[in-house]
Amino acid sequence: MHSFRILVAATTAALMATNTPALAGRGDDGTVKILFWQAVSSLNPYLSGGSKEVYAASIVIEPLAGFDEKGVLFPRLAETIPTLANGGVAKDLTSITWTLKKDLKWSDGTPVTADDVVFTWQYCTAPGGGCAEKAKFDGVKSVEALDPLTVKVSFDGPKPFPYNAFVGQLSPIIEKSQFKDCLGEKAVQCTAANFAPHGTGPFIVKDFKPNDVITFTANPYYRDPNKPAFSTVVLKGGGDAVSAARAVLETGEYDFAWNTVIAPELAARMLEQKKGTLTSAFSSTVERIQLNPYNPDPALGAKRSTQEAGPHPILSDPAVRRALALAIDRDVIVEAGYGAMGQPTCNIVPAPEIFASKAKTWCGKQDIAAANALLDKAGWKKGPDGVRVKNGQRLSLLFQTTTNAVRQDEQELVKAMWSEIGVETELRNISAAVFFGGDVASPDTYQKFYADVQMYASGFESTDPEKFMADFTCDKIPGPQNNWQGANIARYCNRAYDARVKELSHTADKDKRAALIRDLNDMIVNDGLVIPIVNRGEPSAISASLKGAILNPWDSQLWNIADWHRAR
Fold this sequence. Notes:
alpha+beta, D-Maltodextrin-Binding Protein, domain 2, Dipeptide-binding Protein, domain 3, 2 domains, seven-stranded mixed β-sheet, 15 helices
């Protein structure tokens, strides 16, 4: 577990000491091949917050600062990290001032300026834009260019943790001249910019076939003349986790495969080939089940799964929600699907350690008897077929998740566990490229949540979960009003919770912040709409011939691709 601290790298040299530098000149190592079995649908993380889009985009566009694999905050486009000590953060915590590195250029050869940073804020906060990362700018009152290289971000009150806006790959800087005509409702129409953004990163887009393959080439204007070592990146999408792992660990066709969650015994057989390693980065990623609080009945049309649809006919009952959680045996799920790459958890915030609540003793172990007793008391009676019924409503649920062998096994296990308490469960799986794709026209995205129950994994990229906790506030619920891009996928809405989030945003003392975060975690879990299952490591398969690829639990898994190189 990570202790609570924000580690600040004082200079670029300090960062370089923690990473393996490329051993070749720019482009000398040819092509590196990456496999995302969840295919990429866009290279604009502001329009799709799925990890696959964020990671792919991080090859091209960058934030002012990022987090390394140890949680160390380091400058990317910024000259240094602003702090109270160096005067970059105001003494009253109401502003932070960033200074850009000199002579930065976009991949089209034009200068990067403070106006681009200001524009990025305007882009994400423009009305009607449905920005997937709008929460990164919560509390930001203004962003102003003080001069061509200096940007001041002012907050609407003291901001104890000012490293959300423009920090990490969820909040990269985009070029004003390229996106100036893409504000608000026009954002989704800017296909050329969304598929091939100009960037400051080590690579630029050469060709993009959505939901298939992307070819990147070395950025001739990248700020380090000796990097990247590879001249070309080919990022292929599609398939499944097993085939992705096999392509690196058995056939050697690819160099890097992300999100290779596979059965432990299968992983062991693949590793026997000695063509690569399977490495996992543990942080805050939690596999969770979400219970829809709103009615997803297709007959409701555009209102389905929104507040206008009304309460869910089954899951609005807190006794049902608690019973479903009590029926789950997390130890069995971890043993069957994750092995050493998973840890049972009852927390939506499992790390850093100071934030991990110890209050959830009721959900630590499966308790079928208690779950059945709750349902009996709530009036859900078992019928002749063993399925419970109340007021003519069968306790029958549609359970959806992504297409993945581990997840399908998980679904089957949960279905069997729920059958022990009289729940009928229909299983559905959806291609991950569609489920996480963010296509507003698709009925199958996790934002739409056109099911009773859904399961996936996510976490937070920084070492402070304030933004993550803010994603569960009432105003972040996806719906037609925000093009289904709200971050509150679970549709959790609790005004007392919202008030505590606001309190957190103005609390500087680390122990008080930690206590608030634990309380917020407990509110979410005890309400029962989100059922944490597994603290999941984010595994990737890495070829033995690929060097410098360091997994990062706090940022993009491709965060240091500029340092990747071929073994010699």
